[in-house]
């Protein structure tokens, strides 16, 4: 066993760190305040090859491993989780699913521009539509229907809290074709943004990751050709679950980045701020907080990297991904709360960044499966 990154890993980490510091940090507070989608920055991510990191070069991707993806996600999330979620959804939920389960024609038509993040020099990203107003954690209870009409499906229903909802060119939509078959009656369909009958609802006004683009998507008699179904008839729920297992590694890395970003700011602040005649880092009350933060972040990093390594080795990573996500997201929450506390009154105002990181951390306990869902996956696995 070796706890060492390759030279290529280090280069990717450095490239992501440079990008985050130079191109994400300026303006991150304003984008959060104004709920402004980081379009220019996402286009730069596309140029860096970070929107299709794990996709084979044959389909326009960077051909990198999951460890590289985790390293890049961590660095970008340290600074701007609104940007890293765009990257995570496009990489893990959209590109990976299409490359692994899509047909050659689907890869040619959709995966290539999605992995590049651009088509005709314009932004081209995807969204993953599983959650519904009444089906979040209980994902098998899909109310959106995809009626089979021979050579096409007719899609009706509403999807909620869709990341990239207003910016996506392509939606991967889970819908029920045969309710009697329950989860085995669900199909995953590729739906183009300009399809007749597809409407994007108002942008959600969120607590955190405010720069990211979250909307409801409504489908009214949307015609989807059969060639846009991913996998065999009824494969949609398995597609969603398998895809989400990898997605959870991305969100674990995002949570890890939010935690380590807050920790680094708190450490720096504690070495400068004086109270009772010494730097506050000289007080044991602060030292112990920093020690706990550093220890938990390291544990979250190891769990996340283990899940990524298992994925790269083609091992079953569902359990590790859920463990990494539940742990890293809870570390992100605890760490950011303590980072605000260490900053005292300064931590409560926007210019010190830690209050934003605390708000951003919360979503990592909710999306791509809540902490409770991760515990369902973990307990089922260890008790089987
Ligand atoms: N891989 C392959 N198959 C899987 C699987 C996996 N990881 N997990 C479940 N399945 C299969 C099961 O084996 C079962 O198939 P069989 O009937 O053939 O055995 C089928 O799927 C149904 O599974 P369950 O019986 O386990 O279903 P359940 O109703 O008990 O639900 C659950 C399980 C884990 C709670 C699941 O519903 C779940 O993960 N819910 C959370 C959904 C979620 O993560 N939503 C996030 C939305 S996307 C998002 O947030 C993106 C974004 O924009 C950022």
What does this structure look like?
The mean pLDDT is 97. The chain starts with 6 loop residues before the first helix and ends with a helix. It is globular and about 80 Å long. Strand 10 (274-275) and strand 11 (278-279) form a beta hairpin. The protein has 11 helices and 11 strands. The protein has helices at residues 7-24, 28-34, 39-48, 66-79, 81-101, 104-116, 236-272, 284-312, 318-343, 354-363, 371-383, and strands at 118-119, 122-123, 126-129, 145-148, 152-163, 170-176, 186-192, 198-203, 214-225, 274-275, 278-279. The protein has a 4-stranded antiparallel β-sheet with strand order 4-5-9-8, covered by helices on one side. It has 3 domains: 7-123, Orthogonal Bundle (Butyryl-Coa Dehydrogenase, subunit A, domain 1); 126-234, Butyryl-CoA Dehydrogenase, subunit A, domain 2 (Beta Barrel), CATH 2.40.110; 238-383, Butyryl-CoA Dehydrogenase, subunit A, domain 3, CATH 1.20.140. The protein has 384 residues and is an alpha+beta fold. Acetoacetyl-coenzyme A is lined by residues 89, 93, 128, 130-131, 137, 139-140, 162-163, 183, 237-238, 241-242, 244-245, 318, 367-369, 373, 376-377.
């Amino acid at each position: 066993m070796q706890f060492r990154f390759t030279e290529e890993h280090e280069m990717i980490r450095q490239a992501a760190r440079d990008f985050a510091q130079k191109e994400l940090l300026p303006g991150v507070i304003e984008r959060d305040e104004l709920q402004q989608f980081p379009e220019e920055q996402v286009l730069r991510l596309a140029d860096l090859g970070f929107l299709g990191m794990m996709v084979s070069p044959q389909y326009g991707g960077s051909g990198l491993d999951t460890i590289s993806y985790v390293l890049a996600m961590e660095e970008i999330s340290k600074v701007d989780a609104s940007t890293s979620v765009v990257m995570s959804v496009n990489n893990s939920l959209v590109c990976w699913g299409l490359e692994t389960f899509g047909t050659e024609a689907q890869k040619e038509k959709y995966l290539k521009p999605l992995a590049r993040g651009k088509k005709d020099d314009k932004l081209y990203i995807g969204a993953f539509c599983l959650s519904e107003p009444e089906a979040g954690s209980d994902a098998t209870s899909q109310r959106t229907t995809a009626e089979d009409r021979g050579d096409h499906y007719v899609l009706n229903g509403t999807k909620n809290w869709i990341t990239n909802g207003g910016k996506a060119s392509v939606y991967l939509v889970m819908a029920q074709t045969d309710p009697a078959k329950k989860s085995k009656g669900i199909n995953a369909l590729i739906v183009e943004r300009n399809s007749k009958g597809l409407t994007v609802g108002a942008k959600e006004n969120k607590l955190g990751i405010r720069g990211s683009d979250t909307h409801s998507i409504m489908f009214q008699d949307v015609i989807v050709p059969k060639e846009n179904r991913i996998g065999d008839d009824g494969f949609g729920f398995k597609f969603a679950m398998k895809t989400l297992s990898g997605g959870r590694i991305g969100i674990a890395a995002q949570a890890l980045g939010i935690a380590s970003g807050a920790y680094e700011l708190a450490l720096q602040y504690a070495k400068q701020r004086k109270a009772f005649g010494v730097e506050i880092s000289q007080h044991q009350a602060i030292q112990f907080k920093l020690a706990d933060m550093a220890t938990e972040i390291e544990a979250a990093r190891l769990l996340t990297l283990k899940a990524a390594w298992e994925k790269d080795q083609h091992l079953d990573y569902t359990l590790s991904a859920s463990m990494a996500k539940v742990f890293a997201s809870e570390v992100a929450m605890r760490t950011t709360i303590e980072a605000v506390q260490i900053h005292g009154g300064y931590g409560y105002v926007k210019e010190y960044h830690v209050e934003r990181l605390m708000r951003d951390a919360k979503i990592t306990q909710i999306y791509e499966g809540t902490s409770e869902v991760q515990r369902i996956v973990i307990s089922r696995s260890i008790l089987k």
